[in-house]
Amino acid sequence: MKIKISIKKIFLFLGSLKTGLFLLGLIIVSSFVGTLIPQGLSPEEYVRHYGETAYSFFRSLGFTSLYYSRWFVSLLVLLGLNLLFCTIERISFKKRSLVLLHFSLILILSGSVLTALFTEKGYLSLREGQTADSFLSEKGEVDLPFSLTLNDFELEFYPPADHRIGAYCPQMEQGVICRLKPGESCGLEGSPYTIYLKEYFAHLVMTGEGPENRSEKPLNPAVLLEITRGGEKEERWVFADYPGMMPVKFKDLKLAYAWQAPVKEYSSHITVQKQGDSKETVIRVNRPFRCEGYIVYQMNYDQDDLSWTGLRVKKDPGAKVIFVGFLILNLSVFFYYYKKIKERKGDG
Amino acid sequence: MADLVFNICFGFYFAAVVFYFVSLLFARNKAGAVSDLFLFAAFAVHTFLVVFRFWQTGQPPFVTLFESLLFYSWSILFAYLLFRNRYKLAPLSGLIGLVTVFIFGALSFLDKTSQPLIPALKSNWLFIHVSSYFIGYGAATLSFLFALIYLLNRKRAESGFLTFMDTISFKLIAFSFIFFTLGLTTGSVWANVAWGSWWSWDPKETWSLITWLVYAFYLHLRLVKGKKGMVCAWINILGFFCILFTFLGVNYLLRGLHSYL
């Protein structure tokens, strides 16, 4: 009999509002601390930033990986139990929105447990022409039920917002950098020269009829500059990839062009083979490829060698549970609080 | 053209505030009506500015700080106009106008050039995730202002006025909470599509969760514990500072995956 009473007491205590609010407060403060201390750095970096004593203190409290520390996960588990017990206690059709709201939170927390326990994730680097049927996870190599071949990696840029032209001549104390758009000019301080950006070609090709812009891909970016000194003029092509071209007229004026533009898109053109079937697909950021529960994401690329692509592979059985939880959460929050807003009396 | 429309909008908000104070100081009802007229006209032009920016750049207008603040100030007005008639908020129009004038003042110093979307932001989720948050931020800002009025007038004002401020603050938080929930969950679904993880404890994510939890704390205290008045007003103010930190502070003070606004 005594044991029954104690279990009931524990149940009531764990499911009480006081416990819930206390846990919420603790989670808020802990999450705040986790954003003050950088997470997941190497021991050397912590020592460099905070010193040996502070690092030992952080490590002993699990602050260096706070959100995955035992005590923080325990707080989340306790909050889950609090939600579960208080929902069981208050279950009724009249309070259906509220019960559903709390149920959805329990569902989300359960989904996150599934994610933490059963997610397979890792990275996969592929060179053009290379095929892979496994990826490297934290636990080792994981076999995939399909194979991926990288046919082509593509990097696209937006047109440059402006063009950075570096200029130097012996009369100047030091070189200057002008940022110009086509149609704009810039006087070079300390020199008799003015430069005017006449044209920009992303992919300049010299043909029998003169220079031609073959495409908007930055395969050979160049700018046509009109240089003036007093009444004299010179037109000069300055190439981003071929600096140091010999000037024709104003030989003392050295010009350089640094091409820079924001990345628009990067994508991997892939062939997927599964049990004899072959399919072509393109994986982009925000457009992953899904197959047999696995999701393949475009993550990064090698700036120095664009024949490589960096992919991320994941299989997360918790995600669907969480997203169903999100849907129920939104619906129940909407119906519950919409009613509270509509109610005439103060707090409903 | 956009600059001209921006200045017209700024001018309308300013005129609304001037006429509001004229009506207040000289007890002229007509000036109050003119103030309202300017406020409605300013909101119409403000809406046009946001839509025009969307059309002009071809992307949701939340990419730069200028665009974000323009939409944030629109959201404050949107929440105000939505609640104005039902809760008889017309006498507070000057205060809302003043807040908007200050935001427009800050906007006029910001770089108005648009920026192209980086690959991580190129998604339909951008619109729903960010607009949900801003609509929530707008209503929570109003709620914060009313909580502030409550605290500043706690000892002087009559209890009816204080109860009204307290109640409207709560209603606005309930409204924001719907949009914070939508923003938080759509952000998580989007993160799963873009980064391959529905939750990474990135500083911006963590701060948006902290904000959600602070408001959840407020709602529990109020609806289950029955707390009202000063305690709720202080938590409301804490919640607003969490919003400010999530919106702006994280970007400038902490590093993370959200290395853009």
Short characterization:
The complex is a heterodimer of chains A (348) and B (261). Helices cover 34% and strands 36% of the residues of chain A. By secondary structure, chain A is of the alpha+beta class.
Fold and architecture overview:
The complex is a heterodimer of chains A (348) and B (261). With 348 residues, chain A is of the alpha+beta class. Chain A folds into three domains: 143 residues, no CATH class; 89 residues, no CATH class; 86 residues, no CATH class. Chain A has seven helices and 17 strands. In chain A, helix 3 packs across helix 4 and helix 5 runs antiparallel to helix 6. Chain A is elongated. Chain A starts with a helix and ends in a 6-residue tail after the last helix. The mean pLDDT of chain A is 89. Chain B has two domains: 91 residues, no CATH class; 145 residues, no CATH class. Chain B is flat, with a radius of gyration of 19 Å. Chain B starts with a helix and ends in an 8-residue tail after the last helix. Chain B has 261 residues and is mainly α. The model of chain B has no long low-confidence stretch (mean pLDDT 90). Helices cover 77% and strands 0% of the residues of chain B. At the A-B interface, helix 2, strand 13, strand 16 and helix 7 of A face helix 6 and helix 7 of B.
